[in-house]
Design a protein that fits this description.
Elements lengths: L2 H9 L8 H9 L4 E4 L7 H10 L3 E5 L3 H13 L4 E3 L6 H12 L5 E4 L1 H5 L5 H6 L3 E6 L22 H4 L5 E5 L4 H11 L5 E4 L7 E7 L3 H10 L5 E5 L3 H13 L4 E4 L5 H12 L5 E4 L12 E6 L6 H8 L9 E7 L1 H11 L5 H18 L5 H8 L12 H4 E2 L2 E3 L1 H13 L6 H8 L9 H4 L12 H13 L3 E3 L7 E3 L3 H5 L6 E3 L4 E2 L6 E3 L1 H18 L3 H4 L2 H10 L4 H4 L7 H21 L15 E3 L10 H13 L4 H8 L3 H13 L13 H12 L4 H8 L5 H14 L1
The protein binds adenosine-5'-diphosphate (ADP) and zinc ion (ZN).
The site of adenosine-5'-diphosphate (ADP) has 18 residues, from helix 3.
């Protein structure tokens, strides 16, 4: 099988991304490789696909348990046998995996470095007895002190090449500057490694910055248009994450907080709920995110200024891993910047303080840009990006510039007349001739007092900001920031220098032409996916990405053969879940007199929501209640499914909810004699995954019955 065939068969994708193909070819040739690819670029595939094609076992070193579980779930859902060994597992579980390894039943084994090399571990010797064919080191920057996330346990990997001298190693990371790269190669002792560095541009993310005014209202306006989407909101302090999450809940949003000071159980619960789309918004400190693989995060908001571009870029990079259009919004205020400046000073370490202040300054510059933001970001990371991107707020806006020399002169002379001792609020009040008693009596006598009364406060704030950005004014970084003149001010005041500013009204352009998708159907597909995910006990995005659902809601595939062309449907997924997904598509098409649009499908086109024809079905509680009401009229599962245009599995899931709440008696859904047998199976095998239970119980027992009994057992506890 060729790599491209394997890509289609096992992963359901049509084409390689970035340099995946070349990387995979090198790995298959037995060469060592170092791969740099941005978050969401598709690093995992670079070792997963060779693992499938090669004979033997691929060992994957990964730092976080949560990440391993995610990856293993994804592989298993695609029918690729993978497992992890870590401290969270019972001895029985570990034994089972060891047995499978001995029988060559596993293609990929995920491990933490300390597990492999930890003292007293004889795992390494066991692994050496197996036909290991490839070693992948994920998050490879963790091995370097120069990286931003050094992990001492990664240093143990220095012994890897001694233990497995002939086995090719692929090291992967999303962030590593030159120094870190060199360090990785040296520490891992890679042989004649091929390096692959992909562009770090995340083309599907639109970057926006808004001057922070009333941040909560600004946030609400932003979220209002994204009610159904998942997003992360980053705050600086732990306290504000909790307060903001509470406020958002009050406004009817589904939001939870996450920060390092919370109880582990609470953190795990909120994270899990977010991964499973049960909670739409996580309000977090930067403690949240590392190892979060959720692909359908549609937006990342920073309500406070990040400390540096590196952190900001990594955090925003958590949006849109599935490649669909996503947003990064930053609310910027000068106050935040000066607050951070105070934090950035490290007592007694001038050198480090200087570095941190410089990084903060670059972040502030980004926030005040009047040129393409993406270009700035790329240049920051030493990547040439010659053109305007066309998809940041600056590029999307049509700015009208006008001759503002007079305005600039008024502003600068005001600053001069108040002796460069006041902040912008005071200067603006002074310019506008405010009667406020805070304005000093002596200032009210000046000729300049009130010369800017024709311009609104908000506009003045904008102009002053721009004058600062253009370098005609500066702001001190004191507790009370003060406006000062600069070396460039004089020429303006003397009329030797013209100044152009941006008109206060800017118009945002229309987005590009796109194919509409059926929003009502998309909701139904999400429900189907959720139900399957519940049955498999994995987060929904592991079953299929939002991108795949979106394709279905756009092109309306009517048969399994058509469904195969939807991105993400490999052979196994198609066989396992294909029929389940076709039900809502076909029902929807029939109901609205539509047919397949697969002929129009060409890869990589964006889609836009079709505003009309949305259906009301969908929202969790109501849809369950509707099923329950029909059930109470005496209808059978199949009848309710047909009537509601949902799959029987969905209906069964609805009903088991009411069993758990004690509103339906278990005997109404499962024959008496079956109950103890299912209960028995659940007690011996656990209820984490339904598929193995079904396997044990056989064809006489349906998923619906198993779920019903689990619901009933949960109720009893
Ligand atoms: P990274 O580890 O680089 O952050 P992942 O390996 O998690 O990224 O991949 C991000 C997403 O892109 C995953 O959902 C993955 O399945 C998907 N993906 C990877 N390669 C391709 C491809 N060639 N075509 C379409 N989707 C892909
Ligand atoms: Zn741009």
């Amino acid at each position: 099988m060729t790599p491209i065939q394997a890509l289609q068969k096992y992963f359901g994708y049509n084409e390689f991304r970035h340099q995946q193909e070349a990387i995979i070819q090198h790995v298959l040739n037995g060469q060592d490789v170092l791969t740099l690819m941005p978050t969401g670029g598709g690093k995992s595939l670079c070792y997963q696909l060779p693992a499938v094609l090669m004979n033997g076992l691929t060992i994957v070193i990964s730092p976080l348990i949560a990440l391993m579980k995610d990856q293993v779930d994804s592989l298993n859902v695609n029918g690729i046998p993978a497992a992890f060994l870590n401290s969270s597992q019972s001895p029985n579980e570990q034994q089972r995996i060891t047995d499978q390894l001995k029988n060559n039943q596993i293609k990929l084994l995920y491990l933490a470095p300390e597990r492999l090399f930890g003292s007293g571990s004889n795992l390494i010797n066991f692994l050496k007895s197996l036909p290991v064919c490839l070693i992948a080191i994920d998050e490879a920057h963790c091995i370097s002190h120069w990286g931003h996330d050094f992990r001492p346990e990664y240093l143990m990997l220095a012994g890897l090449k001694n233990e497995f001298p002939k086995i090719p190693v692929i090291a992967l990371t999303a962030t590593a500057d030159k120094l870190t790269r060199k360090d990785i190669l040296e520490k891992l002792d890679l042989h004649n490694p091929a390096g692959f560095i992909s562009s770090f541009n995340r083309a599907n993310i639109t970057y926006r910055v808004l001057p922070k005014k009333n941040s909560f209202n600004q946030l609400l306006a932003f979220l209002e248009e994204r009610k159904e989407d998942s997003g992360i909101i980053y705050c600086l302090s732990r306290k504000s994450t909790e307060a903001l999450a509470a406020d958002l809940k009050e406004e009817g949003f589904s939001a939870e907080a996450y920060h390092a000071g919370m109880e582990n159980a609470d953190k795990a619960r909120n994270q899990e709920a977010f991964l499973r789309d049960e909670v739409k918004i996580i309000v977090a400190t930067i403690a949240f995110g590392m190892g979060i693989n959720k692909s359908n995060v549609r937006y990342v908001v920073h309500v406070d200024l990040p400390k540096n571009i590196e952190g900001y870029y990594q955090e925003t990079g958590r949006a849109g891993r599935d490649g669909l259009p996503s947003d990064a919004l930053l609310l910027y205020s000068y106050g935040d910047a000066s607050k951070l400046q105070r934090f950035a000073r490290v007592e007694g370490n001038e050198e480090q303080s200087a570095i941190m202040l410089k990084k903060l300054d670059d972040m502030v510059k980004y926030s005040q840009l009047q040129t393409c933001r993406r270009q700035y970001l790329m240049q920051y990371f030493d990547e040439a990006f010659p053109d305007n991107c066309g998809s940041c707020d600056i590029c999307l806006s049509e700015y009208e510039k006008f001759d503002a020399t007079l305005i600039a002169q008024k502003a600068l002379s005001a600053v001069a007349r108040v002796k460069e001792r006041f902040g912008s609020t005071y200067v603006i009040d002074f310019l506008r001739g405010s009667k406020n008693e805070k304005i000093k009596q002596e200032h009210k006598q000046l000729k300049t007092y009130g010369i800017g009364a024709d311009i609104s406060k908000a506009d003045w704030h904008g102009y002053l900001r721009e004058l600062v950005t253009l370098g005609y004014l500066t702001v001190t970084d004191d507790a009370y920031p003060v406006l000062k003149l600069t070396a460039k001010s004089d020429a303006v005041l003397k009329g030797l220098q013209k100044v152009e500013l941006i008109a206060s009204q800017t118009i945002e352009e229309k987005q590009a032409e796109v194919i509409p998708y059926e929003a009502g159907l998309l909701n139904e597909l999400k429900l189907t996916r959720r139900d399957i995910a519940i049955n498999e006990n994995v987060p929904a995005y592991i079953i299929l990405s939002d991108a795949a659902l979106m394709e279905m809601a756009t092109y309306l595939p009517q048969t399994l053969d058509e469904l195969r062309l939807i991105s993400g449907f490999g052979d196994v997924k198609l066989a396992r879940y294909g029929r389940e997904f076709l039900i809502p598509v076909k029902n929807y098409a029939t109901k609205h007199g539509l047919s397949s649009r697969m002929k129009q499908k060409s890869p990589k086109r964006e889609r836009k929501q079709r505003a009309d024809r949305t259906t009301t079905s969908g929202r969790g509680a109501d849809t369950r209640l509707e099923t329950f009401t029909l059930f109470r009229t005496g209808k059978k599962v199949a009848e309710i499914a047909a009537e509601r245009g949902l799959s029987p599995m969905t209906i069964e899931n609805h009903l088991s909810y009411f069993i758990q709440r004690g509103e339906i008696d278990i005997a109404e859904l499962v024959k008496e004699e079956k109950i103890p047998i299912i209960k028995d199976a659940v007690e011996s095998y656990g209820h984490e995954r339904l598929a193995p239970l079904k396997e044990v119980l056989g064809d006489d027992y349906s998923y619906g019955e198993i779920r019903a009994v689990i619901g009933w057992m949960n109720k009893a506890v």
